[in-house]
Amino acid sequence: MFNVHTFQTRLEEELKTITNDLRAIATYDETTDNWEAVPGEAANQEADNNIEADEVEEWNERRSTLATLEIEYRDIKRALAKIADGTYGICEISGAPIEIKRLEFKPTVRTCAAHMNEESSLPL
Ligand SMILES: [Zn+2]
Predict the structure, then answer these.
(1) 74 CA distance to ligand 1 centroid (A)?
(2) What are phi and psi of 90, to 5 degrees?
(3) Which helix (H) or strand (E) holds 27?
(4) Count H helices, E strands: the chain?
């Protein structure tokens, strides 16, 4: 057995960091449990074509950063929920204990080593 509190502490720290990163570029909608990207300040300025192109680029970058952060955010929330209901560290496919080394490397991992290739097919 492993000490689940070690992982809980680490996940809670990571959640704090991610939430701060998300808040910098997005707003949280409680009713849908979704983060929405917010445009940068530059978007409100009157723009010539160059600025507009920069803004589109910035906006696209922002949305792709948001997508990445949102996945991490959900992964961490899921892992914390599993800690709360006592299923943390158990492979979601086989029900076998997940190798401690895998959890240490990535605390949000959802499968044991034997099923790592199937992790991406698990529902969100
Ligand atoms: Zn497994």
Answers:
(1) 21
(2) -115, 130
(3) strand 26-29
(4) 3, 2
